[in-house]
Amino acid sequence: MFPRQITPELMQAMKSVRFIAQHIKDADKDNEIVEDWKFASMVLDRFFLWVFTLSCIGGTLGIIFQSPSLYDMRSPIDREIEGRGK
Questions:
Q1: Alpha helices per DSSP H over the chain
Q2: Which residues form the Neurotransmitter-gated ion-channel transmembrane domain (predicted)?
Q3: 20 to 30 A from 76, CA-CA: which of 11, 36, 47, 62?
């Protein structure tokens, strides 16, 4: 009923199926590597966002706290000049 030997066409078809299966496995491995790199880049992106945010806040606070009006209790010079003219 069925032939007992494998024909060359059947061998070629089996070889092609194996090739396709191996190609899909390799593509899956490549996709895993790509996804790992995407995750690593998201982690680094979030880390550098926090570094940038904290450095901006620190720089802003540093500039504000260096302002002489915060710790110098003398009256401003324009008020002194106005007071002399009257």
A1: 8-65, 77-85
A2: 4-63
A3: 62
Q: Is the pTM of this model over 0.70?
A: no
Distance CA 35, CA 47 (A): 18
Q: Computed from CA positions of residues 53, 55, 57, 63, in that sequence, does the dihedral angle turn out positive or negative?
A: negative
The residue extents of the domains of the chain are: 8-85
Opening angle at CA 40, ends 36 and 44, nearest 5: 170
Query: Is the dihedral angle over the CA atoms 46, 52, 54, 56 positive or is it negative?
Result: negative
d(CA 64, CA 66): 5
